[in-house]
Write the structure tokens for this entry.
Amino acid sequence: MPERAMAIQRVAFALLFASTLLVGLAALAAIGVICVRGTGALSWEFLTTMPTQGMRAGGIFPAIVGTLELVGLTVIFALPMGVAAAIYLTEYAAESWLTRLVRLAIVNLSGVPSVVYGLFGLGLFVIFCRFGTSLLAGALTLAIMILPVIITASEEALRSVPKSFREVSLSLGASRWQTVRHAVLPFAVPGIMTGTILGIGRAAGETAPILYTVAAFYLPRLPRSIFDQAMTLPYHLYVISTQIPNIPQTQRYGTALVLLLLVLSLNLLAVILRARFRRRRQW
Amino acid sequence: MVVDAAPTLKMAVEDWSVWYGSLRALTSVSMAIRHTEILGVIGPANSGKTSLLRSLNRMNDINPSFRYTGRVTLDGRDLYRDLDGQQVRRRIGIVFALPLPLPLSIRDNVTYGPRLRGERDPHRLEELTERSLRASSLWEEVKDRLDLQAVKLSGGQQQRLCIARTLAMEPEVILFDEPCSGLDPVSTAKVEETMLQLKAQYTIMLVTNNTKQAARVSDRVAFFLMGELIELDRTDRIFTAPRDQRTNDYITGRFG
Amino acid sequence: MAWQRWRERLIEFAIRLCGISSIAIVALIFLFLAQEGSALFRTVSIAEFLSGNRWYPISDPPRFGILPLLLGSGLVTAGAVALSVPVGIASALFVSEIATGWSKDVLKTGIELVAAIPSVVLGFIGITVLAPAIKQACGLPTGLTALTGSITLAFMAMPTVVSITEDALAAVPRGHREAALALGATRWQMMWRVLLPAAGSGIVAAVMLGIGRVIGETMAVMMVTGNAAVIPHTFLRPVRTMTATIAAEMGETVRGSDHYFALFAIGIVLFTISFTINMVADLFLHRERN
């Protein structure tokens, strides 16, 4: 009898392994295809010159710059607000119906479809606030989208700071804010930082929220201000792979590769930092 | 030996009762703490010693279910109704049971409180650091490496650092909450020696599980049982001729 | 001293404001959607909107029935779930119970990285690699079908399913595992009969969040499903999802037109669906934690 059970186990384990392998191979294949076919396009010119001939030739410089500026602006909005919200939840608010509601709201925000964020951004920032299609509108929309990521990571980071630090600080005559500022926050920075990097990675790769809030179709110049439109990598990739015929495949794969490298290296950075901080922790 | 008359009344506790939610921790405690004395507080676990301690420097405020009735005064002023919590904690310092250095350098640990209070002058901070570390008998061991991370010190050294940290705030009263519970005998001796040296300038209350320590160090001793103050008297009287049977039982080790 | 007090009060106020901002934002999103979307219902009834089977927004007169879109989303989601849930749970079991040491770390990191791949990149792969393959393999006129969408989305939902299932498995107390093994069960029997049931609510939550992820996906599905807003009868033909409709048509609408309002109305439907899924999943996660 046990032989039969062992045989079943062998089969079952083989299936489990196969599933994992399937996912792993599919992932590697997807990434591999892009790397193989896209590396050909990567060159200094590709990365640093403007597109020409209606994006059929030339480089993707404005898309790269646009993405960086957009994401930078997004973080400027999302980081302070997200960290403050996390501080509220861990340091200032006692568990109550209100905090439960706040957490529920955060869970919901993280589940809202990205295109709905786009609609919201369009309605509120582009139209109602009259920012127009601009870096500002896009950044605000993306900021709201990555807020849950930052809040969750910051909350976890704040909670990981031992309670005793707060007690010690208060016992030495510090006020509540001073305690947060000097005895808690500095030690939560690593966790907050990794969370922010993950948020940046997310914001850099999103297309739907920026479709109608910031993205420009063919704008062979850099944005002049935050009220200006901008080209971005995700939108650029979408356009050249679905809207414009007769673009050399290497151009398309090259763009995909650049975007993929950007996002994956940010995420990998966050993973490495997280592991490093965990090891170096002094408590 | 302490004379009964003359020492000034530094803090007074009047009919003080404490609840955490529906759990009553202290019942109608009344006692006084005198300047330049070490008042030892002994009793078994859950007798309310720590609740009393934390009532004195308003650390209980942190607990959302904390309720009280009665009065605690500092120099005659009501601690809870007339004074501000943060101010109280600057004037009444505490040393916790476990050494709790912040993950900062030795110097930054000691100057943490003063800097937050607004002290900016580097000379004054240096002077304060040296004075506090000398007073807690740690200066000689760390004077050359003040930038060392405090967590790298030994347990006994860390605890003396915590004492220095509290002293740097120049408090008037110092509360010790079982400060030697995690320490080896040598470190314990050093801490007790420090307490005796500090006595002349401060008002000190020592909560301890170790009755022998209380006998060694305190001028007067208070015995607590199940949230009530059973007896408070001079150390020699408590340990040789206690008035209450329960005090005697605890001291002689019949329970606790 | 007083000025410092003031400053503290101000900081505390700002912190509290940010704290409850998330509630305000959710409410604001719903409000905006509702305000614009409900304008549609002046000319079109809700029933016709939800059950009408013709989505002809630019014909004259326009028809705004979203049944094809609902079914399109439903079909693609069902396919994606059918693919990703078994594979996802199986992989989670493997990673959490069988893999050890550095291979476990590599796998977990790998899953995290896969989750990070932007949807537009996956859509791109879908168009260039997957669609032609399916077209050839099934002999279809076009490779942009619901099946292509399902496969692509299954790939995107997998990391969600895997990581939440992993958490659910990890939350099962060691005692359960050890007791089963001590009673003579093989490791597989322990996993199948003890572990999975014990992690039940967490796994349900994982599936629900996976569904939420799939329904809400826009770019990848827009790029690979062919965008034919007709009632789907099979996996092997193009379909249109609700998300793709909004993304694809928003640029062509006139602000203030019925088409414009209709897209916002779809937004309301999407928001409601994801709201419900998240609430239910959260309920299951909470039940598991207790």
